[in-house]
Amino acid sequence: MQQKKISIKWIFGLLLVFLIYSSANIFMKLSSSEDGMLMLIYLSCAIGILGIYACLWQQVLKHISLTTAFMFKSVTVIYGILFAHVLFLEEITVNNIIGAAMIVAGIVVLGWRS
Asked: Which of 14, 70, 112, 113 has most Cβ atoms within 10 angstroms of its Cβ?
């Protein structure tokens, strides 16, 4: 199977798509601490963001192979840790860093082998 050549533009696009995907988690976390209408608004925002992500993901897959694109999905772990720290003032622990590094390293090794 022939690999698609990846331009730097599409790598940045892929990282942006996963940033959008990760931002849906912000609204899901916000909705978990609310009741009533505000919870529904936050959940609606999360669903809307996931819809935008799905459309953009399909566009990315026209230019990058699924194997390569999915390998980059591990970046969402890093985005999640950063969002939690910046927006919710959660502490970044050594275990968070080690766990994220192991996930990213595992995906890179699997991608490298294929």
From this structure: 14
pLDDT tens digits, 67-108: 888 888 888 988 999 999 999 999 999 999 999 999 888 877
Task: Determine contact, residues 13/60, Cβ cutoff 8 Å.
Answer: yes
83, 26 in Cβ contact below 8 A? yes
Q: What digits encode the pLDDT tens for the residues 63-77?
A: 988 888 888 888 898
> What's the pTM value of the predicted model, to 2 decimals?
0.80
Instruction: Name the CA radius of gyration of the chain, rounded.
Output: 16
Give the number of other CB atoms < 10 A from CB of residue 46: 19
CA nearest to 5, candidates 73, 72, 64: 64
Task: Count the neighbouring beta carbons within 10 Å of the beta carbon of residue 7.
Answer: 11
Length of the chain, in residues:
114
